[in-house]
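Weekly modeling sync, notes
Attendees: S.R. (lead), two postdocs, one rotation student

Agenda item 3: backlog of single-chain predictions. S.R. asked that every request posted to the team notebook include the full sequence so nobody has to chase files. The rotation student volunteered to paste the first one in as an example of the format we agreed on. Action items at the bottom.

Example entry:
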Amino acid sequence: MLGGSSSKGTAVAPVPKKQLTAKEKRTPAGKFAVRLQLLLDERGWESADFARKLGVDPPAVRRWLRADGLPGSLELAIRIGKALDVPGHPFPDWRQAFPENL
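Predicted structure, as returned to the notebook:
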């Protein structure tokens, strides 16, 4: 099997990690992507495993890691921080993503 197996026993191809450009890394979505990838790597978690922990679709996590978007709500951003069990807020630039909710 290529990238392991899913719970149904079918082969799952590994998803290549996107290399963000310097410009992308400076955007709120880029900063979020870099920090999220670092936190997942520190824990040895794959994006699909993290998606299951959050109760979201794996493509959503992959979009965040490609800097193609941010979590759609403040509630979800808070769940992400709790799931990562990081002291303080794991995403210092999160206020830029949800200014209307603060």
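Discussion: group reviewed the output briefly. The chain has one domain: 22-101.
Action items: rotation student to repeat for the remaining queue; S.R. to check formatting next week.
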